[in-house]
From TrEMBL:
Name of the featured protein: Monosaccharide ABC transporter substrate-binding protein, CUT2 family
Main location (coarse class): other
SUPFAM superfamilies documented for this protein: Periplasmic binding protein-like I
Gene Ontology molecular function terms on file: carbohydrate binding
PROSITE patterns reported in the protein's UniProt record: TAT
Subcellular location: Cell envelope
InterPro entries: Peripla_BP_I (IPR028082), SBP_2_dom (IPR025997), TAT_signal (IPR006311)
Domain of life of the native organism: Bacteria
Amino acid sequence: MSFIKDYIARETLNRRNFLFASAAGLGGVAAGGLFGPGMARAALTDPTIAWGYRNRTNPYWNEIVSGGESFVQSLGLPRDALTHLINEGSSEKSLSDVKALLAKTGGNLALAIDANDAPNCRPVVEAVAEAGAYVATIWNKTDDLHPWDFGDNYVSHMSWSDVKPAEDTARILLDAMGGKGGVVHLGGIASNSPAIQRRQGLENALKDYPDVELLAAEPADWDTQKANQVMSAFLTRFGDEITGVHCANDTIAYGVLEALRAEGIEDMPIVSYDGNPQAVQLVAEKKILATVFTNPYWGGGISAALAYYAATGAFKPSEEPNEHREFYGPTILVTPEDALEFKATYLDSAPDYDWTDYWGPSNGPIRY
């Protein structure tokens, strides 16, 4: 598991900042600011295409951005034509970077973004709509925020229905524990929608396992190094009472595995989420019992495609049904029995997607 150590080491280094938008633009006023929400201007010409996300050192976000790069290449553009807005987990930076890029481009922008947490999505969308630009969001938004309330400018929102898949992995974990003992949960950023849903999945499963105690649940902020610290503290606090670990994503699981290894523990039942290549290999080796693949490569590419094709007038979002404005992305449960087949199909080489098939692999409308 040397790659886990390498991963932790890399996360302690200063991360590269791929932000191409100039902060000097913050003081300017976007030319598109004359257009209010719901008042989209004529189709844009050669809009800047951007992706806003946490950071690329995380394998999940690397896959998201790789999908975005594949989309821009499908337009005959080089990979570096995609502008990167890296927020490093800061909602304030996410919003300020979007505003800076809107000012720099005069609103001639097609943006795909995870706004970092649910409350931050509204001000991001409002800024984009006011500038006459176009945005497709993923993962985090509040339940009262809807694309159809912003005409064409807020193109779409994609999330994943995480409660049931997280419950499925939890049941695999609890069965491996023999239906008894103590489990700990390491979550994502507390205000993130997927973090909330994945913990809910565990709690749903626990209702059917009265002899399993949830010893503790703490956020690890989707971060390997923090997960390592949280798990080390759990081991100090609970010791042998811990007989299973429920991780909110794969990068958290890497930190957990390293903390366990430091204590000489090699056979602790663990489950995770995201289906990153390293995690799938660990599932094949039965060092992780299960993970859930959300096809981030497709999610990253199709979100950029939706924003771009709406911006350039290839389709009109306001003429689409609501299930095309808010929809679930696909999920696949990966277990040791099918991990190698899954890896060969989805990870060893990226599938060749048609980026104009906007809703092909999607999984139905978002339900509240």
